[in-house]
């Protein structure tokens, strides 16, 4: 499993110093970007003059305990499923004490820019598919 870490900053929290629920989605997106960079790609990329990307079609998060100001969260990235045109990730969050904080999920669809700049779903390129499948949770 790929992991990255990030400190909960003051701006990530509410008045009680607890991380605002929506900021978990920002942390998941940053972890996904780090993960894809480790595979030599990104959420947005260009190939042969064509723009490609992975817009989200489903996101969710279940919370186990609060993350607080200055906590250092470890965010895991697990590839749960690779479809013809989509990829689904699981993001387990733990704090610096090793306690489970939350588990998030994202499903993204592979798209490319078609004629006239129109976004269209597309099959994941074979080389990228192989890299993603190679990272699937056992």
Structure description:
There is one protein chain. By secondary structure, this protein is an alpha+beta fold. It has one domain: Thiol Ester Dehydrase, Chain A (Roll). The protein contains two helices and nine strands, in the order E-H-E-E-E-E-E-E-E-E-H. The chain has helices spanning 23-38, 126-133; strands at residues 2-7, 44-47, 50-53, 56-63, 72-82, 86-94, 100-109, 111-113, 119-121. The strands form two sheets. It has a five-stranded antiparallel sheet with strand order 1-5-6-7-4. The longest helix is centred in the first third of the chain and has 16 residues, at 23-38. It is elongated and about 50 Å long. The mean pLDDT is 95.
Taken from the alpha-carbon principal axes, the silhouette is elongated
**SSE succession:** EHEEEEEEEEH
**Count of spatially separate domains:** 1
Sequence of strands across the biggest β-sheet: 1-5-6-7-4
What's the level 1 CATH class? Answer: Alpha Beta
Major β-sheet, in short? 5 strands, antiparallel
**Per CATH, what is the topology?**
Thiol Ester Dehydrase, Chain A
Count of DSSP strands: 9
What would CATH call the architecture? Roll
The number of helices is 2
N-to-C terminal Cα separation, in Å?
10 Å
Residue fraction in strands: 35-45%
Cα-based radius of gyration, to the nearest Å? 16 Å
Low-confidence parts: none
Q: Give average pLDDT, whole number.
A: 95
| Fourth-level CATH superfamily | Hotdog Thioesterase
- What is the helical fraction, as a range of percent? 10-25%
Category from helices, strands and their pairing: alpha+beta
